[in-house]
Amino acid sequence: MYSSEEIHTFLSSSSGLSVDLIINENKRYLFTVLEKKRRSVRISLHRMFLEAPLAVLEDLSLYLQTGKKSFLMSISQFIDEKSYQQPYLQRVEPQALHTTGDYYDLPAILSRLQEDFFEHKGPNLITWFGQKKTRSRIIFGEYQPLLQLVKINKKLDHPSVPDYFVDYVVFHEMLHHVIPSSTMPSGRRSIHGPEFRKREKSYIHFKKAVEWQNKHKHLFFEGVF
Ligand SMILES: [Zn+2]
After folding, report:
1. Given Cys at both, which of 2, 109, 125, 128 links 149, Cβ 3.0 to 4.6 Å?
2. How far away, in angstroms, is 166 Cα from ligand 1 center?
């Protein structure tokens, strides 16, 4: 375990840059380059980096010097491993969760799936989240590992959305807890790898749910939901 001063000293001396280092507790951005100039850099690292092996810090320093993405591989591997470990999990205040729906009861869905498919080893927290839509894609669900929290788009809380589809989205996000993303040797992140896809198909209404999604996706853009 290093102190933030030690990391700062190491990165400054090994990269030859003037490093402005922020150690954060942020849930989402575990490593961010906030500003890069020719001789200086401002970065934000999650406090998990205080436990990073020297090899990871060396790659970090090389990345700051060169900007070469190949140096990011060991860094994202490190993040992948740490993100699922106890001390980095963050508490979610129960009042921050919005679980009451007009049509669907998320905690009930979660606990039923826990029992039927996950032997109670899946995540225990679930919430609705507000509209999130890009021009080409709607995000139905998300999983946040540091919070062990499943987030489901409020748009699915609608009588025209069948229960097997809501179940499927919750199931998919719960799977992210059980099968974490990993970094492939090429440095690319594998989020829905072969094991994930195989397990996803074990959901009983998988085919029906995917068909419903393909057939009705456009309605979410047309404001029907
Ligand atoms: Zn996914």
Report:
1. 125
2. 14
Cα of 201 from ligand 1 centre, angstroms = 13
Rounding to the nearest 10 degrees, give the CA dihedral for residues 80, 86, 89, 90: -170
Q: How far, in Å, is the centroid of ligand 1 from the Cα of 174?
A: 9
Radius of gyration of the chain (CA): 20
CB 64 within 8 A of CB 56: no
Q: Report how far ligand 1's centroid is from the alpha carbon of 193 (Å).
A: 10
155 Cα–ligand 1 center, Å: 18
pLDDT tens per residue, range 71-90: 988 898 888 778 767 666 66
Phi, psi of 58 (to 5 degrees): -65, -45
Dihedral of alpha carbons 142, 25, 182, 184, sign: positive
- How confident is the model over 170-220, as pLDDT tens digits? 999 999 999 987 766 665 677 898 999 999 999 999 999 999 999 998 888
Q: Which CATH architecture has domain 94-221?
A: 2-Layer Sandwich (3.30)
